[in-house]
């Protein structure tokens, strides 16, 4: 208990709580439109052992639905776009799957329009890698078959090799097997996340680039009139935090219970605090509406 309190102080010291700093955050949003970017696993849903069961709560879904009524909102996830949509189930959002390599500008539009219209709303900078990713997925499944608890997930333009449920003494073997497979795929690279090894194309594209692309495409790239806020918990979210910090145009919010090196400005300790933050944004916006609009 003592130890976790100390950690908490350290994190607060380097990266203040977004809830405690809420007034300061909204003060810098005065006269601007807030644009929200939300990671999924560990941010909107708690981390669980089975990636197929990482459901978000109905309360969190309602909180995201509510913020999206007031602010343009996008989900930016390492999951495949289809999978993360299956979890979130909100048509009013934009979705960037596969760590930003599969962007659908508006899922609401995607159902009602023709195939041509759909294509103009889709951005897939790694599409040429699709056959290679399928091949790598098959090889990784085969290579890790003998490791109890290892789980390979196909995220369309990238592949996740999970070791959360693998005995700790076999973690190095998983890493070695993945390295060995990658020797046959020089155009794929490895990144790491929360008890997961992520295999993806070597292209210069990440969640940071995806956020820049979304800001531009949605005409939200004027820092004088837009304040982007990105909330995420993982290493891959750091690319997005960095973009906002370097452009000096918005805030990254790291979701973490432990102190971490981060490019984020603020922190929240768990998805429950993310929900509280989203609810606070909605309450603040509702208070700003003239009475006749609220009725
Ligand atoms: O960018 P994200 O939406 O955060 O996706 C990153 C990875 O998230 C998922 O894995 C993580 O969450 C799982 C469920 O809680 C957990 O079991 C796993 O250990 C975590 O690494 C997802 O399954 C991966 O494919 C994503 O790359």
Automatic annotation (TrEMBL):
<dbReference type="InterPro" id="IPR006379">
    <property type="entry name" value="HAD-SF_hydro_IIB"/>
</dbReference>
<dbReference type="Pfam" id="PF02358">
    <property type="entry name" value="Trehalose_PPase"/>
</dbReference>
<comment type="function">
    <text>Removes the phosphate from trehalose 6-phosphate to produce free trehalose. Trehalose accumulation in plant may improve abiotic stress tolerance.</text>
</comment>
<comment type="similarity">
    <text>Belongs to the trehalose phosphatase family.</text>
</comment>
<dbReference type="InterPro" id="IPR023214">
    <property type="entry name" value="HAD_sf"/>
</dbReference>
<dbReference type="InterPro" id="IPR036412">
    <property type="entry name" value="HAD-like_sf"/>
</dbReference>
<dbReference type="InterPro" id="IPR003337">
    <property type="entry name" value="Trehalose_PPase"/>
</dbReference>
<dbReference type="GO" id="GO:0004805">
    <property type="term" value="F:trehalose-phosphatase activity"/>
</dbReference>
<comment type="pathway">
    <text>Glycan biosynthesis; trehalose biosynthesis.</text>
</comment>
<dbReference type="GO" id="GO:0005992">
    <property type="term" value="P:trehalose biosynthetic process"/>
</dbReference>
<keyword id="KW-0346">Stress response</keyword>
<keyword id="KW-0378">Hydrolase</keyword>
<protein>
    <recommendedName>
        <fullName>Trehalose 6-phosphate phosphatase</fullName>
        <ecNumber>3.1.3.12</ecNumber>
    </recommendedName>
</protein>
<dbReference type="InterPro" id="IPR044651">
    <property type="entry name" value="OTSB-like"/>
</dbReference>
């Amino acid at each position: 208990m003592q130890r976790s309190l100390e950690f908490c102080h350290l994190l607060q010291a380097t990266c203040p709580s977004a809830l405690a700093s809420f007034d300061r955050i909204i003060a810098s949003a005065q006269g601007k439109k807030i644009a929200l970017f939300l990671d999924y696993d560990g941010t909107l849903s708690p981390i669980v052992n089975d990636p197929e069961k990482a459901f978000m709560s109905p309360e969190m879904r309602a909180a995201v639905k509510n913020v999206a009524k007031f602010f343009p909102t996008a989900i930016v996830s390492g999951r495949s776009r289809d999978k993360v949509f299956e979890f979130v189930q909100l048509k009013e959002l934009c979705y960037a799957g596969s760590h930003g390599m599969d962007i659908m500008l508006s899922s609401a539009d995607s159902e009602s329009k023709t195939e041509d219209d759909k294509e103009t709303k889709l951005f897939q900078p790694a599409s040429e890698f699709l056959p290679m990713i399928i091949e790598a997925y098959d090889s990784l499944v085969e290579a890790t078959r003998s490791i109890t608890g290892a789980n390979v997930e196909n995220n369309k333009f990238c592949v996740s090799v999970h070791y959360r449920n693998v005995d700790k003494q076999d973690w190095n073997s998983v890493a070695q097997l993945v390295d060995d497979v990658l020797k046959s795929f020089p155009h794929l690279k490895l990144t790491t996340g929360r008890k997961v090894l992520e295999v993806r194309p070597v292209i210069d594209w990440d969640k940071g680039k995806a956020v820049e692309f979304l800001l531009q495409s949605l005409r939200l790239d004027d820092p004088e009139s837009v304040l982007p806020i990105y909330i995420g918990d993982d290493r891959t979210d750091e690319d997005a935090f960095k973009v906002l910090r370097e452009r000096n145009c918005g805030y990254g919010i790291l979701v973490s219970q432990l102190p971490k090196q981060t490019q984020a400005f603020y922190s929240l300790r768990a998805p429950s605090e993310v929900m509280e933050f989203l609810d606070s944004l909605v309450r603040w916006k509702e208070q700003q509406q003239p009475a006749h609009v609220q009725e």
